[in-house]
Amino acid sequence: MSELWTSAEAMAATGGQTTGDWTATGVSIDTRTLQPGDLFVALKDVRDGHDFVAQALELGAAAALVSRKPEGVPDSAPLLLVDDVLKGLEALGRAARARSAARIAAITGSVGKTSTKEMLRTVLGRQGKCHAAEASYNNHWGVPLTLARMPADTEFAVIEIGMSNPGEITPLSRMARPHVAMVTTVAAAHLASFDDLSGIAHEKACIMDGMEPEGVAVLNGDVDTTHILQAHADHVGARKVLFGENELDWMVGNVQIKGDITVIKARHGEEDYLFKLSVPGRHFAVNAVGVLAVVEALGADPVAASLDLAAWVPPAGRGTREVIVTDGANEGESLELLNDAFNANPTSLAASLEVLAASTPTHNVGRIVKGRRVAILGDMLELGPQEIQMHSEMAQNPHLQQLELIHCAGPLMRHLWEALPDRQRGQWAATAAELVPKVTHLVDAGDVVLVKGSKGSKVSLVVDAIRKLGHRLSDQDEG
């Protein structure tokens, strides 16, 4: 590993005091994932990170960023002492940003920011040295941590910025100082903290507040609140680039979902693009075209990026497809599992239902002769005062109406379940955990099964139960 921070550099960045000379090759906030040579940052969350400093040093941490000397740590231990650990991490992040000549993109959106960030990581990494956030590190500690981990010789960086409440995005944007800011979409998410979608749009627009001079705002031109995003771009003096399915700068043309892939035609100016994604989903297609807009705005090659997008696959739990072999002795006795159990709101659920509706079940392999398209849905959380209506109205979704069977878990999903016609209504349970022992009766070989819900609904328990029905094959296992 190459050198990331010396004690002198970290001390200058944070204004802290160090107890000795050291060199760090990484930055960590969790002893469970800490690597030898990391600078351990003792943040206070559910537990106080100072309680883990001794363990971090035993695991090979180069030093620890602390606000006091923890108990049980020898006087000779390598420590970087600051007044406030989080502010120290923020200072490291700002210093890493200041020393970097990287072209930086910042991404936000109600849906799709993590998958879009990963698309950008994939394609930019083939055109230069690219740094991007791990997992969904997009909050008040995730953004400075991502920046603090950025090597000085980075050529492209992708910073994901999220929010749960008003006022969170602006300071993070100003820390990242992006050259390009992207808003994937504005949808009903975190409405418990906002009055309406316009409030969410105003907050998402704040990702442009920290943009570098002559920055570019890549904005979804299809959403009803796009005028709010565009007005904010004008306010900060950013150049606007719009993407979506309407007549826009980057226009999504024909989208075909063909089994496990999505084939996309797009147009930008006089240029036509034809490319594919190795995953089904119109929502992925739209964001992929937005990715090409970001790539061009960063000064990279969008044509090469369009070809490289086929190498991207979504993170686990965000629309990944698995084949569960329920009986290896009988050829073809398996089911397909669409695992999207990490996040849910009406927009993302509609997108997942479109993928399921386009899927083809297999007949004559299960207890039930005809294979089915089955949805197992957990509550969509943080939708605010209209949450009951939003759940019940999903029964009118045209893609949902094409499904054979829908099971639901949670008090909010009961309203969707009750709105279903008898032919589609499967089981309902108060919690996802209560569906787990029933899973053998919920699905069958030959079915294509979508499991979707907010993380807090714990519908991932159902995913685990379905996997235990047999031997799991990922897309990669199938070749």
Quote the distance from N terminus to C terminus: 32 Å
Largest sheet: spatial strand order = 9-10-8-11-12-13-14-15-16
Sum up the overall morphology in one term.
globular
The structural class is alpha/beta
Q: Using DSSP, what is the number of strands?
A: 23
Summed over residues and divided by their number, the pLDDT gives a mean of 92
Helix content: 25-40%
Beta-strand fraction estimate: 15-25%
Oligomer: single chain
Count structural domains.
3
Major sheet characteristics? 9 strands, mixed
| CATH architect. name of the largest domain | 3-Layer(aba) Sandwich
The number of distinct helices, counting runs of at least 4 residues, comes to 15
CATH class identity of the largest domain: Alpha Beta
CATH topology of the largest domain: UDP-N-acetylmuramoyl-L-alanine:D-glutamate ligase
Low-confidence regions: 474-479
* Rg computed from alpha carbons, rounded to a whole number of angstroms: 24 Å
Write the CATH homologous superfamily of the largest domain: Mur-like, catalytic domain
Organism: Yoonia litorea
Function: Involved in cell wall formation. Catalyzes the final step in the synthesis of UDP-N-acetylmuramoyl-pentapeptide, the precursor of murein.
Binding site for ATP: 109-115
Protein name: UDP-N-acetylmuramoyl-tripeptide--D-alanyl-D-alanine ligase
